Amino acid sequence: MSILIVYYSRTGNTQLLSDYLANELGADLEALHDGRDWVSSWSTIQAALASVLGGNSRLAPLGKNLSDYQLILIGTPVWVGRPSVPIRTFIKMYRRQLPNVAFFCTQQGEGGKNVMNTMQSLARRVPVARLVLREGDLSGIHENTDAERFVDTIRTFTKDQITQPA
């Protein structure tokens, strides 16, 4: 089963988790880019406002064809208790093309559960698995039981999909 990980990372934490998941699952990666500098102090404020107000961004064209994949993992940092603007935009743009999905997010504080619910609502799909990980847990990602459980759930799902008769 082909797996694609689509993610947005502002500070590198969600990218780190995405790289780990890709390595564990043998998945392809697709980093989203919208041409915005969300890192500077002013841009951080703009990002928070856009996230709270449900804003969208202009995404660069995807390098991967979504129809080539049976499972897409979608990852985002938590922005003020909501998905990042690029991820919100991606889900809204491509929700009709999404096959099976799983969601993950990185957070410094709180809001991960709300992000998972928002992503599910936007995608109009029940995810195969969900993972909320604190940024402080990324240094020990290989020993993190939540991350291991997420990977195991994905592996079980892909195995079940392969063994089911057509």
- What pattern of helices and strands is seen along the backbone? EHEHEEHEHEH
Name of the level-1 CATH class:
Alpha Beta
Share of helix, binned: 25-40%
| Span between termini | 14 Å
Structural class: alpha/beta
**What would you say the CATH architecture is?**
3-Layer(aba) Sandwich
Q: Count the strands?
A: 6
Percent strand:
15-25%
Using only C-alpha atoms, the radius of gyration works out to 15 Å
> What's the multimeric state?
single chain
Q: Give the tally of structural domains.
A: 1
Number of helices: 5
| CATH fold name | Rossmann fold
Largest sheet: 6 strands, mixed
Q: What is the mean predicted local confidence, pLDDT?
A: 87
Q: What coarse outline follows from CA principal-axis ratios? A: globular
The CATH superfamily name is: Flavodoxin domain
Q: Uncertain segments of ≥5 residues (pLDDT<50)?
A: none
Strand and helix layout:
Elements: E1 3-7, H1 13-25, E2 28-31, H2 41-52, E3 71-79, E4 82-83, H3 85-94, E5 100-107, H4 112-123, E6 130-134, H5 145-163
Parallel strand pairs: 1-2, 1-3, 3-5, 5-6
Antiparallel strand pairs: 3-4
